[in-house]
Amino acid sequence: MAACRFIFFDVGNTLLFPNRARILAPLLEHHREPTPEQWLAVERRTKPEFDKIVEKGGSIDHGFWWLFYTHLLEELDLAPGHNAENELRDALVQNTRQSANWDQILPGTCDALHRIGCDREIAVISNADGRIEEVLRRCGIAECFRTITDSGIVGHEKPHPAIFEAALRAMQAQPAESLYVGDVYSVDYLGSRNAGMQAVLFDVAGAYQNRDLPRVDSLQALEAWLKLPGKS
Description:
Elements: E1 6-9, H1 20-23, H2 25-28, H3 36-55, H4 63-75, H5 83-96, H6 109-119, E2 121-126, H7 132-138, E3 148-150, H8 151-154, H9 161-171, E4 178-182, H10 185-194, E5 198-202, E6 215-216, H11 219-226
Parallel strand pairs: 1-2, 1-4, 2-3, 4-5, 5-6
Helix pairs in contact: 3-4, 4-5
């Protein structure tokens, strides 16, 4: 395995996390709010289910978040099926797909990125709405990255190889010496691997803890992983 000279990061659930107050506003109108434990449990359930759909070549027109909120509303006894519940789910999905609503950043993120960036060139590849650079700038970490590749600008979403290829070209990086860090197996891990890159899952929720896959649950854990033989 080639050493990792370039590292590309996902944004959502990797560098930035959802602003639940804004995203869940339609749900709060119903006086329902998931606990952090419920949210993570639904994430752990949804990711493997979504991965199976993608891996089998099934339609992903509704996307990950449509499936996530279907399960979350079931958990809150607001199961979609009637017009009101369907509209609620659609509103939640729409809110979640807005880059501006992903602005929660963990303490130490900027410092960790600077440390990682001392030894490697780092960049971003994100499925977003064309405005992810603005959000990263507002959160104070845009300057950490040499390039920022946004599907809303490129015109292709992960796992399509074109978005990875566009990011590699922008960085003048070879796939074999590049690493992608993201949180969804079928989209981030397989997508980057199919583009010839190395990959590691950023698994805060623990959705993949029982699978034999390279995974970390924090930027600090990624730093330790990068110090393993063959990574530097």
